Amino acid sequence: MIKEEHFTDKVADVIQLDETLSDIVKAQVMRNLAKLKGTKVNILITGATGCGKSSTINALFGSDKAKVGQGVAPETMDIKKFELSNIVLYDSPGLGDGKEADLRHAKSIIEKLHEKDPQGNLLIDLVLVILDGSSRDLGTSFQLINEVIIPNLGEDNKRLLVAINQADIAMKGRYWNDNENRPEPELIKFLEEKVNSTSKRIKEATDIDVEPIYYSAGYKNGNQAQNPYNLSKLMLLILQHTKEEKRAVFVQDINKDSNMWKDDDRLKDYRGEIQKTLWDSVKESASQGADIGGAIFGAPGRVIGGAIGAIGGFISGLFSGW
Ligand SMILES: Nc1nc2c(ncn2[C@@H]2O[C@H](COP(=O)(O)OP(=O)(O)OP(=O)(O)O)[C@@H](O)[C@H]2O)c(=O)[nH]1
Ligand SMILES: [Mg+2]
User: Fold this and answer.
1) 55 CB near ligand 1 (under 6 Å)
2) Whether 165 contacts 54, CB under 8 Å
3) Which residues of 245-275 are buried (b: 16+ CB within 10 A; e: fewer)?
4) Which one of 53, 181, 227, 270 is most buried, by most CB atoms within 10 A?
5) What tens digit of pLDDT does each residue of 103-140 get?
């Protein structure tokens, strides 16, 4: 497989060619871009067997990164690490696989949550807990969130994200509009109740406020396939829960297949907000400490060596068809 050129190199090319910038400014931007290129975002993804961890990873970051289970045996036995260009994923089993396995999994999740990076910061930027929306009994998932994850999050509650997957089969497939890939009002009501009861169960046990969302990671099964639903809502939430200075690197690893992102609840322009968030973050990271903010990365239409067009076009080109 040919490795895709890194977006920071493309931005660097544009900057180098810009004759209005001094060498000092260029050097600073180059340093910033090099730093950005090396930035890692570490995400821990966990949840019960079969909730859709692998499917979600593949939908967010491109297919076949993680093996999707077909049988009943748990595919994820211990924490698995997937290194993309800048995003590092840790795929961990949740609870519910028996007492011994549960203890082992809880222990390794707790260790991960406390692990520090070489700079002494907490390694894990974000914990995504996935619940299986089609399951009646989410007891072990609440145990995972309330007793394992939240007590070990430290100060930074923002590190936790809870998302309810398999929205399409939450009512055994009833009230899912297959043609338009969206829930009908009866199912929406059911899912909203699930969201509310989830946040209530967490609040009562831990006094922590979380705002879960529901989505579907979609599936491929032989020649049957269904696109995700609300994946863009999930992606925006992931970005918003990531430290501002790190958000830009999602540009590199995000799934470039626009089909993944098109179906959602339309309550917000999620795709537009993702683009804006990414663009703002690239701008902010690249121009830090160099006196160019307004010049190169200023309002669209201001022509400074074609920089805006080239970079802006690159970012929006990521999501062709949006
Ligand atoms: N209908 C539907 N099926 C889904 C969805 N997400 C995942 N699945 C299916 O659920 C099954 C399990 O999905 P995986 O992604 O392997 O789940 P996992 O959490 O990685 O499972 P383990 O690694 O075994 O713990 C597969 O058959 C998926 O195709 C969804 O949103 N809707
Ligand atoms: Mg898996």
Assistant:
1) yes
2) no
3) ebbbbbbbbbbeeeebbbbbbeeeebbebbb
4) 53
5) 999 999 999 999 999 999 999 999 999 999 999 889 99
Coil vs helix vs strand at 125: coil
Digit-coded pLDDT (tens) for 2-39: 567 888 888 888 788 878 788 998 999 899 999 999 99
**Closest by Cα among 311, 322, 316 to 36:** 311
Q: What ligand 1 atom has the least distance to the C-alpha of 216?
A: 31
Q: What percent of the chain shows pLDDT beyond 90?
A: 66
Q: Whose CA is nearest to atom 30 of ligand 1?
A: 166
pLDDT at 292: 63
Query: pTM, whole model, 2 decimals?
Result: 0.92
Q: Which residues line ion ligand 2, judged by CB < 5 Å? A: 53-54, 75-76
Residue ranges per domain, the chain?
A: 1-38+256-322, 40-247
Which atom of ligand 1 has the smallest separation from the CA of 167?
Answer: 31
* Ligand 1 pocket test, candidate residues 44, 45, 53, 55, most atoms within 8 A of CB: 55
Determine if ligand 1 sits within 6 Å of the CB of residue 135.
Answer: no
CATH class of 40-247: alpha beta
Comparing 33 with 322, which gets the higher pLDDT?
A: 33
50 CB within 6 A, ligand 1:
yes
